[in-house]
Write a structure and sequence with these properties.
The complex is a heterotrimer of chains A (204), B (104) and C (619).
Chain A: H1 2-5, H2 19-49, H3 59-62, H4 65-90, H5 94-124, H6 133-166, H7 172-203
Chain B: H1 2-13, H2 20-42, H3 47-69, H4 78-101
Helix pairs in contact in B: 2-3
Chain C: H1 2-5, H2 17-23, H3 27-55, H4 66-100, H5 109-132, H6 156-184, H7 197-229, H8 242-276, H9 283-297, H10 312-324, H11 326-340, H12 349-372, H13 374-380, H14 384-414, H15 420-446, H16 463-491, H17 532-538, E1 553-555, H18 561-577, H19 581-600, E2 606-608, H20 610-615
Antiparallel strand pairs in C: 1-2
Classes of the chains: A mainly alpha (204), B mainly alpha (104), C mainly alpha (619).
Chain lengths: 204, 104, 619
């Protein structure tokens, strides 16, 4: 056990040092392939239904660019924090790594707060789940993304606690690496959400 | 064995990247995002061209993030690349489906 | 090597009896669990089929009511595809793939167990609907608006949605697991182009699962939101689209039929090659054809929707794409024939099923090309012609393949060879029964009998053929009973199967004991070519050349968490259905807590020492 707590004894790129670690990273990438299709299906349902607003407000009136821009900046920065955490992992600097991870989830929480605020605003404006096909597919797509962010915050939070207790080992390193990949993936999905849902919705 | 490994590691560490390229990727993403938002906020560009700009910026940004932040350009990423690319192909056909064949 | 390092001195509790089966992470035992559960659901689905055929034996019959008939046909289709065929394929994947690639287990043994239990509880949830008195009755395709809240107000379709959702998690996990296993865990020397054909088929199938199942997940979520939270995905009055469901369902559904048939292709390749005692003809073209079929499989979904009215351009495109699939499939058919050509064929039961598969599946393929012609499809659509077509592909293709695989690998799984005489009786009753049942249905369809009808009027020319069809169904039932008798008799025999019971085994699984020890390979073998074991045998060797010295073997520890997690999802399913929020939250919480426990407490596994290996321990 103790051998792994010493940073010096950790191999280069500890996340890929064991077969278990390599399996985990490969399996997770395949999972992200599945997630790509999952979000793709949600996007295509939204694209098919987005013009059918029923009695609800249209997208161009509903969406507020400043809120969306703020959310985008928060998530983008959070993704940068996460890449710094992996860099600290490669340099075996545990304390800075924890710092970057904390920054990641704080920004993640900020994003979630903004999204909750945004959704409550929409509900006040009469844009609810049962309002129209547009609203249903909007909440399902953006909500699925939000749920992924929430799960990521809980997951990375749990990993921070584990690192504090167990240190950086060939068991914990792949977990950090994989969670970072997940976090970037969520940001990539958001790039398409702000483009396809918000900006295109604003254009009409 | 451990001493062996650490010298090996020493030689590799020199090749390890600094934070610079990640910051470059960040700035690039930032600029691409700003262009997209600006194209919409200005309200002066016609709809079709705005769509082209938006989709173009999004795709470039995703390439930047996948290759730099998700290490896709590194060695040993054949199956991750195949996985995401094939996923993207499936998504592409579904977008065509949504745009043209649901309300034909 | 590093795997050993952090696994010392952790005594692991080893269970016996029932607890052993509930906690196992051993791919061989999980394979047996999949087989038992799959067979159970196969019998349920078969019973439903027999009831359907009894109802249709004569015009204006009222053996079951119209409502019950709808429930029977829905549950028959759903059960057979998701709960019988797929698990039996997973049984064979689990039992064989790690052995064929020379690995000690799959990449994620824990996820493997989780996959089984989520499938099992999903299937259980679906079938509990019979006792709850709310049975899904909108067909296995669950088309809206029939399956929507307006026309299906009861809980029937909720069982379908949640049951498949939970079972689908298990399937997706399995797909990821087997892809990772085949990519990362092959023995030294086994390059991609030296993998046995069954391994290739499962690799491609797993990829299809990974990319197709999320589409079903989203479709089911949308239908569930429509039904439970008043969403409007498919509610036309609020701007939803019923055609969207058709698209989403078939973007998943078409790859799904390739998920079913590709493993059968793999099994047939192994069986035909072994029992012709010849190398598989055209190995690399087989690989390429499999990949091509999988790719095209994603581009043809709308051929299920020709009559929806997508217009001539879409219909034309999908028509051509569909016909293209006949090319790689034809390559495969001819390769099997050329493998048989000039071989010294041994007609075992497995070989009979394998060889019987070829003409039967070809017929199913040919009617498929007929259906692919969009204008003609307007005539065939929703008639018994379609029913005949997909039963030729799924029963004549997949189920024949599964039976071939079962007889072929039974000694490897259980250490006992199934009785050949009874096996041949089983083959002939089942095979003749199958053709009696479904061959006439082509003509029933062509003269206009619609599918999914409860009953029909006399004197339309349907009467005789329906009688023949029902007699055939009974013959298939008798065949299945013969198989069950065979299994029971065999289980009382001595466990005396040799390592290579067919004597002509070609791939690595035949180089180790039947059944294999817990760790499969005492020493991971070195692979020196395609048909690795055959190659060594031909050079007069009695065993594989090892690629590592003898040493302690690291094994993952058993765990009850996968079982508990699946129970959690099962409970949550009921919570969602019956609007009991505390049940839904409680069930999900159980699952999440199990995930937390799994993450926090590292699994150090345990070691099997050399002395224990000498004793040949089985868990």
């Amino acid at each position: 056990m103790s051998a792994h707590d010493l940073n010096g004894a950790l191999p280069h790129e500890p996340e890929k040092a064991t077969l278990e670690g390599r399996n985990k990273i490969l399996g997770f990438w395949l999972f992200l392939g599945a997630e790509t299709v999952l979000f793709g299906t949600l996007f295509s349902s939204y694209l098919a239904l987005r013009h059918n607003i029923g009695d609800g407000p249209p997208a161009s009136e509903l969406f507020k660019l400043p809120t969306v821009f703020a959310a985008t900046m928060i998530l983008l920065t959070s993704s940068l924090m996460s890449v710094f955490a992996v860099q600290a992992l490669h340099q075996k600097k545990v304390k800075p790594m924890i710092g970057w991870l904390v920054a990641t989830i704080v920004l993640g929480l900020g994003f979630l707060g903004l999204e909750i605020y945004e959704f409550t605003e929409y509900i006040h404006e009469g844009h609810k789940m049962p309002t129209s096909a547009f609203s249903s597919s909007f909440y399902t797509l953006v909500g699925f993304h939000g749920a992924h962010v929430a799960f990521g915050v809980l997951w990375i939070g749990l990993l921070i606690l584990q690192i504090m207790k167990k240190g950086l080992t060939v068991v914990t390193a792949p977990k950090i690496y994989v969670s970072a990949i997940y976090w970037h993936f969520i940001d990539v999905v958001w790039v398409f959400i702000f483009t396809v849902v918000y900006l295109m919705g604003k254009v009409g | 064995m451990s001493s062996n490994q650490s010298t090996h590691e020493e030689t590799r560490r020199h090749r390890e990247e600094g934070p610079k390229k990640h910051i470059v990727a960040f700035v690039l993403s930032l600029v691409l995002t700003l262009i997209a938002f600006a194209a919409v906020a200005s309200g002066e560009i016609n709809t079709t061209f705005t769509y082209v700009i938006l989709v173009g910026m999004a795709i470039v940004q995703v390439f930047v993030q996948l290759s730099f932040w998700m290490h896709m350009k590194d060695r040993g990423h054949l199956f991750p690349i195949l996985g995401i690319v094939f996923g993207a192909v499936v998504v592409f056909t579904m977008v065509i489906m949504a745009e043209y064949w649901v309300w034909w | 090597m590093t795997a050993h390092a952090h696994a010392h001195a952790h005594p692991v509790k080893r269970y016996r009896g029932l607890m052993d089966w509930l906690t196992t992470v051993d791919h061989k035992k999980i394979g047996i669990l999949y087989l038992i559960a799959g067979a159970l659901f196969f019998l349920v689905g078969g019973l439903e089929a027999v009831l359907i055929r009894i109802q249709l034996i004569k015009p204006m019959n009222n053996f079951v009511g119209a409502d019950t008939f709808n429930e029977l046909l829905t549950m028959h289709g759903t059960t057979m595809i998701f709960l019988a065929a797929m698990p039996m394929l997973f049984a064979m994947m689990n039992a064989v793939i790690p052995l064929q690639i020379g690995a000690r287990d799959v990449a994620f043994p824990f996820l493997n167990a989780l996959g089984f239990w989520t499938f099992f509880f999903g299937g259980l949830l679906l079938n509990i609907s019979w006792f709850a008195g709310n049975v899904p009755d909108a067909g296995w395709t669950s088309y809206v608006p029939l399956a929507g809240p307006t026309y299906n107000a009861g809980h029937g379709v909720d069982y379908y949605v949640l049951g498949l959702q939970i079972a689908g998690i298990g399937t997706l996990l399995g797909g990821i697991n087997f892809m990772a296993t085949i990519i990362n865990m092959r023995a030294p020397g086994m390059s991609f182009m030296r993998m046995p054909m069954f391994t290739w088929a499962i690799f491609i199938t797993s990829a299809l699962i990974v990319f197709a199942f999320p589409v079903l997940t989203v479709g089911l979520v949308a239908l569930m939101f429509d039904r439970l939270f008043q969403a409007n995905f498919f509610e036309t009055t609020s701007g939803g689209s019923t055609v969207l469901w058709e698209h989403v369902f078939w973007v998943f559904g078409h790859p799904e039929v390739y998920i079913l048939i590709l493993p059968a292709f793999g099994i047939i390749s192994e069986v035909v090659s072994t029992f012709s005692r010849k190398r598989l003809f055209g190995y690399s073209s087989m690989v390429f054809a499999t990949i091509l079929i999988a790719f095209l499989g994603f581009m043809v979904w709308a051929h299920h929707m020709f009559t929806t009215g997508l217009g001539p351009v879409a219909n034309g495109l999908f028509s051509i794409a569909t016909m293209l699939i006949a090319v790689p499939t034809g390559v495969k058919i001819f390769n099997w024939l050329f493998t048989l050509w000039g071989g010294s064929i041994k007609f075992t039961t497995a070989a009979l099923f394998g060889i019987g598969f070829i003409p039967t599946f070809t017929m199913g393929g040919v009617t498929g090309v007929m259906l692919a012609a969009a204008p003609a499809d307007y005539q065939y659509h929703d008639t018994y012609f379609v029913v005949a077509h997909f039963h030729y592909v799924i029963v004549g293709g997949l189920i024949n393949g599964i039976f071939a695989g079962l007889f072929y690998w039974w000694p490897k799984m259980f250490g006992r060879t199934l009785n050949e005489t009874l096996g041949k009786w089983f083959f002939w009753t089942f095979y003749i029964g199958f053709h009696l049942t479904f061959f006439v249905q082509h003509f029933l369809g062509l003269i206009g009998m619609p599918r999914r009808v409860w009953t029909y009027l006399p004197n339309q020319g349907f009467d005789t053929m329906n009688v023949v069809s029902t007699i055939g169904a009974f013959l298939m039932g008798i065949g299945t009973i013969l198989l069950l008798i065979n299994v029971v008799i065999t289980s009382f025999k001595k466990k005396d199967a040799a390592n290579d019971p067919w004597e002509d085994g070609r791939s690595l699984e035949w180089s180790i004991p039947s059944p294999p020890p817990e760790y499969n390979f005492k020493q991971i073998p070195l692979v020196r070519g395609y048909d690795a074991w055959w190659k060594e045998k031909m050079e007069g060797k009695k065993e594989m050349t090892p690629s590592e010295p003898v040493g302690p073997i690291h094994m993952p520890s058993p765990s009850i968490l996968p079982f508990v997690m699946s129970v959690g999802l099962f409970i949550a399913g009921f919570g969602f259905m019956y609007d009991k929020l505390y049940l839904a939250i409680g069930g999900i919480a159980v699952t999440l807590i199990c995930m937390l426990l799994r993450s926090v407490f590292d699994d150090h596994g345990f070691h099997i020492s050399e002395e224990e290996q000498e004793k040949g321990v089985h868990a």
